[in-house]
Amino acid sequence: MANDRSPLPENSSAPSGAIPDSSRSQSDLLDDIETIVRGSMNPAYPGYIGHMDTIPTTVSVLGDLVASAVNNNMLSVEMSPVFSELEVRLTEKIADEFGLGPDAGGVLCSGGSLANLHALTVARNQAFNVHKEGLVGVGRKPVLFASEVAHTSLQKAAMLVGLGTDAVIPIETDDNSRMDPNALEQAIEKAEREDRAPFCVIATAGTTTTGNIDPLPAIRDVADEHDLWFHVDAAYGGALVFSEAECGRLDGIESADSVTFNPQKWCYVAKTCAMALFADEDILQEDFRIGAPYMRGNDAIPNLGELSVQGTRRADILKLWLTFQHLGRDGLEQLIDESYRLTALIRDRVVKHDALELASRPEMNIICFRAVPEWCPSEKQDDLNNRLQQTLLSEHDIFVSLPTYRDNRWLRVVLLNPFTGEETLQRLFGGIDGFLNAEQG
């Protein structure tokens, strides 16, 4: 049972990597599998509230099993007829949920990092017409702009598409970790004066550490003013589109040229399941597609492997479709809204606590805070919070992560676990108070 195992194992070891000369018995293999499971992270435990990792829906696990069993290749329609059509239909539907327009669509990717890479590649190709000849003939250095707390996958993407990590110009954020549109405007103008070539602005809907949302309408206006590609990394926050009460936080995303969305997080789909969506799906044909001459084409449905970073892909669309069918809009909305209710409870407890402070005002189900008791010198606060995190895990079976944010260590709670309730939150704050009282002596 998941409740019998701590969020993180005390001890774990991987089995031998040796390849045996002959087949091992079924019972031996099952024993090894049990050892592997017991040594793994346990996101189902109610006290696992530290990362954007969820327990998957049962139907998405079933979808993974079925997809593995039929073993279709999402490279082409010929090799995955049902799944290719389903992916086209469902990505178009999700693009419509974001309001991207009648010509929108996209492809699934193995994670948000690949989705950001895909979007950035398309943006670069369109801006500089380098689909065929590459960057050699580009006179000015291409640059793009993202929040100083944007996901590190953007630097990886810039490196992979030949721009270098320094091409991602970090933009200052406000007290709530949201990109400052005025600073963005100034950075673009500065790049132009320095004879660099701005081509893309990336806004974040759900920052990794604090879960904040950049002011999308204001950033869109700046991007439009300078005729730049507008990408929204909504890997985490995109799920808000399914909550009537919270979807307004995504206002402005409908104007994006591309969007990254990662249902493996707040939609509870088994890893991996992400997507790159484009307001104009035809741009994939014009500025990205590499044909596979060994595959038969289809006028109605494209060979998705020709339009994506990956060629061979598993049929992740099945577990996504099954999860939507199983939970429905009502189920997704209930999960999102309940996590907001719990977020408010934690936020209020932190604000009222004399020895705790928030990193930013929570906009999602992520609360980043730290212990700053007056009796602890500032230079020792990181160590104090490090020991607090370890104590919560070892003595209370509560796992919170410990990110570095603005040069300090913080405790981060991510309320994705549907088994986490008010009792877990009581244990969290009871553990915090007990630790601080013991430390103060």
Automatic annotation (TrEMBL):
<dbReference type="InterPro" id="IPR015422">
    <property type="entry name" value="PyrdxlP-dep_Trfase_small"/>
</dbReference>
<protein>
    <submittedName>
        <fullName>Pyridoxal phosphate-dependent decarboxylase family protein</fullName>
    </submittedName>
</protein>
<dbReference type="InterPro" id="IPR015421">
    <property type="entry name" value="PyrdxlP-dep_Trfase_major"/>
</dbReference>
<dbReference type="InterPro" id="IPR010977">
    <property type="entry name" value="Aromatic_deC"/>
</dbReference>
<dbReference type="InterPro" id="IPR015424">
    <property type="entry name" value="PyrdxlP-dep_Trfase"/>
</dbReference>
<keyword id="KW-0456">Lyase</keyword>
<comment type="similarity">
    <text>Belongs to the group II decarboxylase family.</text>
</comment>
<keyword id="KW-0663">Pyridoxal phosphate</keyword>
<feature type="modified residue" description="N6-(pyridoxal phosphate)lysine">
    <location>
        <position position="265"/>
    </location>
</feature>
<dbReference type="InterPro" id="IPR002129">
    <property type="entry name" value="PyrdxlP-dep_de-COase"/>
</dbReference>
<dbReference type="GO" id="GO:0016831">
    <property type="term" value="F:carboxy-lyase activity"/>
</dbReference>
<dbReference type="Pfam" id="PF00282">
    <property type="entry name" value="Pyridoxal_deC"/>
</dbReference>
<feature type="region of interest" description="Disordered">
    <location>
        <begin position="1"/>
        <end position="26"/>
    </location>
</feature>
<keyword id="KW-0210">Decarboxylase</keyword>
